[in-house]
Amino acid sequence: MPWPPSRSSRNEIELQKEVTTLQLKLLRTNAALKLKQTYAQRLEHLLCARNARIDELTGTIDQLRTANQKLNLENHCVTARRTAAARRRAVHPRG
C-alpha cells in the first residue's frame, strides 16, 4: 500500500526558502567575482604593457644619455683644441 503524499512541514518550507535565497546570493556573488576577476586580468594586461613601454623608454633614455656623454666629450676636446690654438696665436702672432 503506497504512502500518501506527505505535506511539507513549516520547517521544511522555511528551509527550502532559505536554500533558494542562499542559491540566489551565491549566483550573485559568483557573478560579481567573475566581473572582478575580469577587471583584475585587464589591469594585469595594462600593467604588463606599461612596464614594457617603461622598459623601452628607459632603454631609449640610456642610449640618449650615452650619446650625450660622447657629444660632451667631443665638445670638450674641440674647445680645448681651439683654446690651445688661440693661445699659440696669441704667443706667436703671424703677421
List the helices and strands and how they pair.
Blueprint: H1 10-91
Oligomerization state of this entry?
single chain
Structural class: mainly alpha
Unreliable residue runs: none
Average of per-residue pLDDT values: 92
- Binned, the helix content reads over 70%
> What is the helix tally?
1
Per DSSP E runs of 2 or more residues, the count of β-strands stands at 0
Q: What's the shape?
A: rod-shaped
Query: Distance between the terminal alpha carbons, to the nearest Å?
Result: 141 Å
Rounded to an integer in angstroms, the radius of gyration calculated over CA atoms is 41 Å
Strand content: under 5%
Order of helices and strands: H
What does the main sheet amount to? Answer: none
Keywords:
single chain, 95 residues, mainly alpha, 1 helix, rod-shaped
Q: How would you characterize this protein structure?
A:
This protein has 95 residues and is an all-alpha fold. 86% of the residues lie in helices and 0% in strands. The protein is built from 1 helix and no strands. It has one helix at 10-91. It is rod-shaped, with a radius of gyration of 41 Å.
